[in-house]
Amino acid sequence: MNRNRAIIAGLAAALLSTTPAFAQTRPAAASVPETLDYVVQPGDTLIDLATAYLNQPTDYRRVQRDNRVADPRRLAIGRHLAIPISLLRADPDQARIEGFRGAVTLTQGGRTAPPQQGQTVSEDAVVSTGANAFLRLALSDGSHVVVPSNSRVRLSRLRRYALNGAVDHAVTVEAGRAESRVTPRRRPGGFVVRTPVSVSAVRGTEFRVSFDDDADRSATEVTEGVVAVGAGVKETLAVKDQGVSASAGVLRLAPLLPAPALTRPDAVLSERQAVFDIVPLEGAARYRGRLATDAGMIDAFAETDSALQGAGGDPRLNYGDLADGAYFVRLSALSGDGMEGRATTYSFIRARNGVGGLVGTSEALGQRRLYRFRWEAEGEGAAEFRFQLWREGEDGQADGPPLVDQPGVVEQAFTLTDLPPGVYSWRVQGSRHRFGRLLQAWSEPQQLRIGR
Q1: Which secondary-structure segment (H or E) carries 12?
Q2: Measuring CA to CA, how many Å separate 272 from each of 188, 383, 443?
Q3: Backbone angles phi, psi at 305, to 5 degrees
Q4: pTM of the model as a whole
Q5: pLDDT digits (tens, 9 = 90+) for 272-294
Q6: What is the rounded CA–CA span in Å between residue 6 and residue 299?
Q7: What is the CATH number assigned to the segment(s) 353-450?
Q8: Which of helix, strand or coil describes residue 82?
């Protein structure tokens, strides 16, 4: 057990040492400077190495002293030198706007404006997203950062070490969230996500970081790899499917909630409002759904959270009048302390199909009386209809089978003559073929009263 704890402590120290500001709060680690092992190549001298790769040409003196080199102009080929990372020169690096959607702004060089596809982004730039807006950043080593809706993220460090080309990046989540997919990085490079209350450091993994300004609380969720999270002088490691909540210097490590499920995963969303009903999940305080045109969520365009607000207290996500199309939805559940759990992705079809605007009128035609029923088709594409009318009993229920049950109606109207006095109900079913599916939906029944 002690050996395992030592291994974990060592890994945490190595990861978190990528952020000097945090390392200063850890006295034990600060006394042992991190070094990079360098193998001497033909023609190398300490003076040349310092001029090319260190912060100051005179920094060779410390390397000479630490490694007990007699002559800085003479080095044995193949010799190993321990070079303090704090001495290594890191040159500016850049990121690139790979894609965005919705209300997004980029603040860079004192100017705030909408970004451009493929635009270069430099250190200290800030990206902000509005509701249902997303931005995807490509870093120079193939890593990616997604900034979801209602978030503000600063690219606080974009550097590349001159000695070996290792990249060192840091982002600060000032509000909202950031989702990172980080490729494995060579030392001394690393990747850090900061919030006002925590630091999350990795060298290759997939994770999310969010910051709730109202609660002064951050959440780090690991979906792949290992992440070291620190707050104040405390630190912990989170592995795949674990999360860390940080608030007031307190860290709480917990398993992520499992992915929720749809109650009707194969259903076509044909109602007026595009609504997903979710199977309730124990421990979930609310649910999150992200919509995209691709399963990888690269081209995301909408996101919403929901508490328990469906019928009977069941969770429900409502995307309003979503345009017809083939889409994907990624579902996750959030715990009470704001940690987002594991996600699952469903494909679905949105094809509006309904019948509305139902109106029944009557008029006299000679000795006969005509009853005209009209409606409006809701949805795209050709539709046909089925008209039903039945007589109601005293209890308000259908008094036997329908008196009229007419399928194959192509007009948005139907006419009957000389109905006897009584109370009737009628409804219309709309049918159409979309996306390889037969869609059918009934209208709400309408009542018709005919006096003597």
Answers
A1: helix 2-16
A2: 55, 16, 11
A3: -110, 155
A4: 0.80
A5: 999 999 999 999 999 999 999 99
A6: 43
A7: 2.60.40.10
A8: strand
